Amino acid sequence: MAVGYSVSKRFSPLRLALVLAFVAGGSSWCVEPKGATNGGDVRLSPPAQPPQIVFASDSAIVPLQALFSDPAIVIGLQKLHAGVALALADLSPGRADVVRKLNRAGIPVTAWLALPMDQGYYMNAGNEPETAARFAAFQKWTEENGLQWAAIGLDIEPDIRDFAALRNHKLRLLGKMVARYCEPGRARRARQSYAGLILQMQANGYRVETYQFPFIADERNAHTTLLERLFGLVDVRGNTEVLMLYTSFNHTMDSAVVWKYGPEAQAIAIGSTKSDPATDAQFPPLTWDELSHDLLVASHFSHVVAIYSLEGCVQQGFLPKLMTLDWNQAVTIPGASVAKVDRMRSRIHTILWIGANLPYFVSLALGLAVWRIAARRKHKRLAAGG
Predict the structure, then answer these.
(1) What is the pLDDT of residue 356?
(2) Cα separations in angstroms, 90 against 86, 115, 141, 168
(3) How far apart are CA 330 and CA 46, in angstroms?
(4) pTM above the 0.90 mark?
(5) How far is CA 139 from the centre of its chain?
(6) What parts of the chain have a pLDDT lower than 50?
């Protein structure tokens, strides 16, 4: 659904995005959406109907309580008929109070499960046992506090500790990734474990949403498991898979990211609207025009659109604007942005294909090297004998 930022957390999605997304290239293999074009531009008619909006919220407990102590925020959510996906970084009495307040207000709340930082924070191939334990603790906490949930959300991203290692211990992280690459069974076991956990959640009456990077769609198209093996992503689905199509990572791509990945999404999350002084210079939050543009495009593919984040929308005064958004307007996506996303996806596909077939290339290179060494020795023996 949404990516949990903060100065420390923001490295998780950004690093993967920078590795894959900013390596442009054209794509003939991805699913092509339909739309009217004019000189390469894509022009979309108004959506059939407005989507339901779900705001992601990942504040620490004190600012979270302050946020929902403002009656205007709760009333705004009610008027928008919006839901909230609440990150459960802790299972505290204070967070339970916030959930009960939203329950009483009739606002649907999704339990966005999160782990302690020392367990990786996000769900991935390296912490399924911790995720299962977290779900058990969540059930107990829910029962003790009488909480009601619209769904459970599993945010599947790389281990946040890997990205701390990327800053401070690059060689150590490289060694871990090489070891993961050489262990293809890890991805299969992770899929099986999380599939079993999702079934357990569903058996307990919960709808389950999985929040995925859009690159998981590229991996499926390329028929590889490279991202799963290297980054610990898990290609598993619950009731609904939400692709996180965040145009704030590269504003020049405009809503073309949503347009190109939208046909492969069961639901869509857009963002980020949240300002962070540590990263705003490189990755500024979406403006109102950008957010509304993404929202209109996403509504062509999904009846539910998540926005990361509620805090950012409040900071920028977007809630009143969302109440008066004109859903009957057409939108145009520049052809240059569409072409840029096409090139990006093509090169991602190439990287995935090469990475998946690297053992064959290495074996071929070693075979050729052995053959050349043998041929040289044979030539020397013949020359010496002559």
Answers:
(1) 81
(2) 11, 8, 10, 27
(3) 5
(4) no
(5) 25
(6) 2-30
Task: Tell me how far apart the alpha carbons of residues 109 and 132 are, in angstroms, rounded to a whole number.
Answer: 21
Q: Taking a C-beta distance cutoff of 8 angstroms, is the pair 243, 3 a contact?
A: no
**Collapsed DSSP state (helix, strand, coil) of residue 76:** helix
Q: Which helix (H) or strand (E) holds 44?
A: strand 41-44
Are the CB atoms for 266 and 328 separated by under 8 Å?
no
Closest CA to 306 of 18, 4, 69: 4
pLDDT (tens digit per residue) in 158-217: 887 765 655 665 666 676 777 777 888 889 999 999 999 999 999 999 999 999 999 999
Quick check: 173 and 180 in contact, CB under 8 A? Answer: no
Rounded to 5 degrees, what angle do the CA atoms 220, 133, 228 make?
20
- Which DSSP category does 60 fall into? -
At 84, which amino acid appears? Answer: V
CB 76 within 8 A of CB 105: no
Distance CA 251, CA 130 (A): 36
Q: How far apart are CA 299 and CA 267, in angstroms?
A: 9
Which pair of structure tokens corresponds to residue 57?
């919220």
CA distance 203 to 205: 5
DSSP labels, 287-331: PHHHHHHHHHHHTTT-SEEEEE-HHHHHHTTHHHHHHT--TT--E
Measured on CA atoms in the order 157, 32, 225, 252, is the torsion positive or negative? Answer: negative
Cβ neighbours of residue 149 closer than 8 Å, sequence gap 6 or more: 109, 110, 111, 142, 206
- The bridge status of strand 151-155 relative to strand 208-212 is parallel
Q: Which residue bears the tokens 């990327």? A: 166
Query: CA 233 to CA 225: how far, in whole Å?
Result: 9
CA distances from 62 to 2, 65, 304 (A): 21, 5, 29
Q: Does domain 11-385 have CATH number 1.10.10?
A: no
CA atoms of 128 and 120, how far apart (whole Å): 11
Sign of the CA dihedral with 109 first, then 82, 284, and 72 last: negative
Q: In a 3-state reduction of DSSP, which class is residue 127?
A: coil
118: left (phi over 0), alpha (psi -120 to 50) or beta: alpha
Respond yes or no on whether the N-terminal peptide bond of residue 309 is cis (omega within 30° of 0): yes
